[in-house]
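QA checklist item 7 of 12: single-chain prediction sanity check.
[x] sequence parsed
[x] length recorded as 357
[x] structure emitted
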Amino acid sequence: MTQTILDSREQMRVLDKENVLGSVEQLPDQIEHVWGEVQKVSIPESYKNIKNVVANGMGGSGLGAHVIQTTYKENLRVPLEVLHTYDLPAYVNQETLAVLSSYSGSTEEILESAKQAKQKNAKVMVIAAGGSLLEMAQQEQWPAFKIDPKFNPSNQPRMAIGYSVFGQVGLFHKAGLIDLSEEVVKKVVANLRANSTNLAPESIETNTAKLLAFSALDKVILLISAEHLEGAAHVFNNQLNENAKNLTIQMVIPELNHHAMEGLGFPKHTKQEMITYFFTSQLYHPRVQRRFPLTIEVMEENGYQTQTILAVSQTKLEQVWEVIQLGAYTNFYLAMLNGVDPAPIPWVDAFKEKIGK
């Protein structure tokens, strides 16, 4: 029965009451839409003379900054610090660009940091679908990108991943911090549309997302990546938590080679209860590429199960979205195998209600 549910849209709709799968399948449409919309945002010339950037966002709203930081670290024109907190660093001043992201526009951590950014005379850019953050941006005349999620049928903020992540990429480009062309965006979108054929429910024999979901059933998932794919793996990780309701751990190479391998001995039951996803790429540094098969060898010699995910697109940005799309389908299929509706997040909602009192 668990094998047939992933091959049947009808069976999946019984669990997927809010059409999360529809949002997954419309990822390329989200990116194409947001790229056109973000071109309409006007960035003051003074914003292009900043000395550093801080980007603050929580949960799904914070994923874009991670993707930018790891994908463009060799090309970013100024230092970028990624935050998930209330307070801005002491160094933030009038030469700092603060990029504040909150899908709802009401995230308390981001609203607090917006107040601090104003007090510190920082330059601010905002991305939100509405709420107090967008109102504050309008009052302060901060550049803002308002998300219009027409390609997010589930209406779940975290499923507007194309809007929130690529929206931030677009804003960074508009501010002159990274280079991005229409041709590159079109290639990313074309790749995602082509890849979706092999990831959709109708694909059975060649569906990597289904294979990964089956391998992770009832297991803790360890995600190991490097360099430009670290941000994409973070997106993968975040959505496994929220959609599949699955416990995960994230590590990076080469850092883990200097300590984590010595922790594989205990507890012994972990060997049967964990699956490791290795995200590999021929665009990694040659020495980093060499570390992946050696690390896999160590894991397997210690009795751990592994799966290797090779990103095959031609450029780093294309590989990032290749992995993000694979993660979106994988976490949805794992939710189906776990027998849960991927849309509700009852623990997060209950926590927000309690802390808001």
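[x] summary fact logged: Residues 94 and 185 are 32 Å apart (CA to CA).
[ ] second reviewer sign-off
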